[in-house]
Amino acid sequence: MKKDQTAGRAAYGDESMMLENQLCLPLYAAARRVVSGYTLFLKPLGITYTQYIVFLALWEYGDLSVGDLSEKLWLDSGTLTPLLKKLEQAGYVRRNRGTEDERVVFISLTEKGQALREEARPVPGCVAEKFPLSREEADQLYTLLYKVIRGIE
Predict the structure, then answer these.
(1) DSSP states of 40-85
(2) Average pLDDT for residues 6-34, to the nearest whole number?
(3) Topology of 22-152 in CATH?
(4) For 92, 100, 137, 151, which has the most beta carbons within 10 A of its beta carbon?
(5) pLDDT score for 74
(6) Which helix (H) or strand (E) holds 95?
């Protein structure tokens, strides 16, 4: 660091405002790198990372309402709705109105959406190989990240 930059930082005397002390920066940078790592393996499948996590939820839980999907993925409906429309246009999902409440929209996988699961099966392992973490470190990070997510809600 240049001498004049150090002097400028010291003049403010507020370490809480120093870039190197911000938790948000490494979280943001790590998230971008992780998504980029997934994108490398998802691009050949023709899907984005956000579409991938939608598929993961539907593969695991089956049909879900848009509200439940939004809750599970921590995505707002403004992000989810256009994404689901694209997946429907591509033939991966169907959107159906609820029978009890027409305001509720349910998302279900088509055969094409179900078949994509087999093509995507290697993705988690391929991405994990790129991470410089042991299994134990990955488990610790997972636990800490969910603690942060749930603490901020």
Answers:
(1) HHHGGGT--HHHHHHHHHHHHH-SEEHHHHHHHHT--HHHHHHHHH
(2) 80
(3) Arc Repressor Mutant, subunit A (1.10.10)
(4) 92
(5) 93
(6) strand 93-97
